[in-house]
Fold this protein.
Amino acid sequence: MELYKEVHQAVSKHAAAQNFHAVLAYTELRPSLGVENVLRVVQGMQQSGCTAPLYIDPALDISKAVTDSLNAKGH
């Protein structure tokens, strides 16, 4: 739980500094376009009412900045 809090704080700090209004978490960095994966994504959207990203500009990925911030704190 402590790690989650620290990641949340680091993401919030970076997002505020960059004037982001929202940051989305997505667990698959390189989703496969295989039939099984496409079906899973579509079924997930149907069951949850949520959206799945079709394209995200790599420049918007703040993972490295957040990781660097956490590592600078000695984590």
The chain has a mean pLDDT of 79. Residues 2-72 form one domain.
